[in-house]
């Protein structure tokens, strides 16, 4: 039986606890070039490495959603704010030690700007 095209992957960037939680949920994959769809950030990870990992995930055509811990997104805010593609969609999420702050989420602010209060009546 022929198999249809596969769906797109979810990628995750964050601290070890966040990434491992998602990996335990089954999102971990390697593409044909053996690149993972996840990136663990620790105290030794440079901002340049985070930025490069984010850009690489954004370029992949097999990824539909990138989940990034908001505190990690803050470290590369200039890159996240300059990302304007629809797919992969970038979503900022909380981590164990850093709660979500909607006022810092540039993607959410951009989405809110697309609607008026009349749209919700």
UniProtKB/TrEMBL annotation:
Pfam families for this protein: ATP-synt_F
List the molecular function annotations (GO) for this entry. Answer: proton-transporting ATPase activity, rotational mechanism
Annotated keywords: Hydrogen ion transport, Ion transport, Transport
UniProt GO cellular component terms: proton-transporting V-type ATPase, V1 domain
Where does the UniProt annotation place the signal sequence? none
Recorded hits in InterPro entries, A to Z, give: ATPase_V1-cplx_f_g_su (IPR008218), ATPase_V1-cplx_fsu_euk (IPR005772), ATPase_V1_fsu_sf (IPR036906)
Source organism superkingdom: Eukaryota
What family does the database annotate? Belongs to the V-ATPase F subunit family.
PANTHER family from the UniProt entry = V-TYPE PROTON ATPASE SUBUNIT F, VACUOLAR ATP SYNTHASE SUBUNIT F
Its function, per the record, reads: Subunit of the V1 complex of vacuolar(H+)-ATPase (V-ATPase), a multisubunit enzyme composed of a peripheral complex (V1) that hydrolyzes ATP and a membrane integral complex (V0) that translocates protons. V-ATPase is responsible for acidifying and maintaining the pH of intracellular compartments.
What is known about its subunit structure? V-ATPase is a heteromultimeric enzyme made up of two complexes: the ATP-hydrolytic V1 complex and the proton translocation V0 complex.
Please give the name of this protein: V-type proton ATPase subunit F
Provide the species name.
Answer: Ramazzottius varieornatus
Q: Gene name?
A: RvY_03487-1
């Amino acid at each position: 039986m022929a198999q249809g095209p596969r769906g797109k992957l979810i990628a995750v960037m964050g601290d070890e606890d966040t990434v491992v939680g998602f990996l335990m949920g089954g999102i971990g994959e390697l593409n044909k070039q053996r690149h993972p769809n996840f990136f663990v950030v620790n105290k030794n990870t440079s901002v340049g490495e985070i930025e490069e990992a984010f850009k690489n995930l954004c370029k992949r055509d097999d990824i539909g959603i990138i989940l990034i811990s908001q505190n990690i997104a803050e470290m590369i805010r200039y890159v996240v704010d300059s990302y304007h593609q629809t797919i992969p969609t970038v979503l900022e999420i909380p981590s164990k030690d850093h709660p979500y702050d909607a006022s810092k989420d540039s993607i959410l602010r951009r989405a809110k700007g697309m609607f008026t209060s009349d749209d919700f009546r």
